[in-house]
TrEMBL record:
<keyword id="KW-0444">Lipid biosynthesis</keyword>
<keyword id="KW-0808">Transferase</keyword>
<keyword id="KW-0812">Transmembrane</keyword>
<keyword id="KW-1133">Transmembrane helix</keyword>
<dbReference type="Pfam" id="PF01148">
    <property type="entry name" value="CTP_transf_1"/>
</dbReference>
<feature type="transmembrane region" description="Helical">
    <location>
        <begin position="20"/>
        <end position="46"/>
    </location>
</feature>
<feature type="transmembrane region" description="Helical">
    <location>
        <begin position="176"/>
        <end position="194"/>
    </location>
</feature>
<dbReference type="GO" id="GO:0005886">
    <property type="term" value="C:plasma membrane"/>
</dbReference>
<feature type="transmembrane region" description="Helical">
    <location>
        <begin position="81"/>
        <end position="97"/>
    </location>
</feature>
<keyword id="KW-0443">Lipid metabolism</keyword>
<dbReference type="InterPro" id="IPR000374">
    <property type="entry name" value="PC_trans"/>
</dbReference>
<keyword id="KW-0594">Phospholipid biosynthesis</keyword>
<comment type="pathway">
    <text>Lipid metabolism.</text>
</comment>
<dbReference type="GO" id="GO:0004605">
    <property type="term" value="F:phosphatidate cytidylyltransferase activity"/>
</dbReference>
<feature type="transmembrane region" description="Helical">
    <location>
        <begin position="136"/>
        <end position="155"/>
    </location>
</feature>
<feature type="transmembrane region" description="Helical">
    <location>
        <begin position="58"/>
        <end position="75"/>
    </location>
</feature>
<comment type="pathway">
    <text>Phospholipid metabolism; CDP-diacylglycerol biosynthesis; CDP-diacylglycerol from sn-glycerol 3-phosphate: step 3/3.</text>
</comment>
Length: 275
């Protein structure tokens, strides 16, 4: 490995060792998870909104709206559609009241809509996963994306030759995705072995391993590619500088944002063997 790779890896490890324990602790209760989701939405949503909007007060308002959605969903409404509609309408009305140029209204509402669905709505799927399938399965979704990213990174670094998205994410390779998939498959087996058999906590059944690992591998990859496309559109290298070695918060959770809602769908399909 080159010197720059080792330095980058060292920074990543230090950042992860500080942030990861705090994140995991937030899974001890439903209320703390709602707070965690809202906090992450604030950071990632701010990075995304800032790519388009330059007016500070407007950015602040839209980011607060994004962070309010998980609270409304998880605490007040207990379902996603009503709070999503409410937050969207408030955002549109605010844009119409403050943006004088129709083209600016379109740009503002566009980036706000993307942030609302892509960041706030998708990440909030952790809440029904937690409430319906338990903390262990919710934590599995989160940590599996960490495992996939790590295995895909090192496998791609060593064996990566077949580029799967040369226009948006040229370093993303098929070999890396396969390595990440195998890593998640092994990790899920070990996770169940420890959590279910040793700690006697319900977690996904062996029959769910293959579809779950496939979802993590495919959705994490496309989540990363989608964020890369956004950054190329706005001509930035990273979404922000929130996490040293990882870039911004959005850079860190891009794959997770696609993985979480689809994991919930998989859990619902295999509901009888997940609880």
């Amino acid at each position: 490995m080159g010197v720059w790779v080792m330095d980058d890896l060292k920074t990543r490890v230090i950042t992860a060792s500080v942030v990861a324990p705090f994140v995991v602790l937030c899974f001890v209760s439903y209320e703390s998870l709602v707070g965690l989701v809202s906090a992450i939405v604030i950071l990632a949503g701010y990075e995304l909104i800032t790519l388009e909007l330059k007016e500070r007060d407007a950015r602040f308002f839209y980011v607060i709206l994004l962070a309010v959605y998980p609270v409304l969903y998880g605490v007040a409404f207990k379902e996603p559609v009503q709070p999503l509609s409410l937050v969207f309408i408030i955002g549109v009305v605010f844009s119409l009241a403050t943006d004088k140029d129709p083209s600016q209204v379109f740009r503002t509402v566009s980036v706000f809509s993307i942030a609302l669905v892509y960041v706030s709505f998708f990440l909030s799927f952790f809440l029904p996963i937690y409430s319906e399938f338990g903390a262990a399965n919710a934590l599995l979704v989160l940590t599996s994306t960490w495992v996939f990213d790590s295995f895909a990174y090192f496998t791609g670094l060593k064996f990566g030759k077949t580029r799967i998205s040369p226009h948006y994410s040229p370093r993303k390779s098929l070999e890396g995705v396969i390595g990440g998939f195998l890593g998640v498959l092994i990790y899920t087996f070990l996770y169940r072995l420890i959590v279910s058999n040793i700690l006697s906590v319900n977690v996904i059944d062996y029959r769910t391993f293959l579809p779950f690992a496939s979802v993590v591998a495919v959705m994490d990859t496309f989540g990363d590619i989608f964020e890369s496309a956004l950054k190329r559109h706005y001509r930035v290298k990273d979404s922000g500088k929130t996490l040293p070695g990882h870039g911004g918060m959005l850079d860190r959770i891009d794959g997770l944002l696609f993985v979480t809602p689809v994991s919930y769908i998989v859990f619902k399909i295999f509901e009888g063997v997940v609880r």
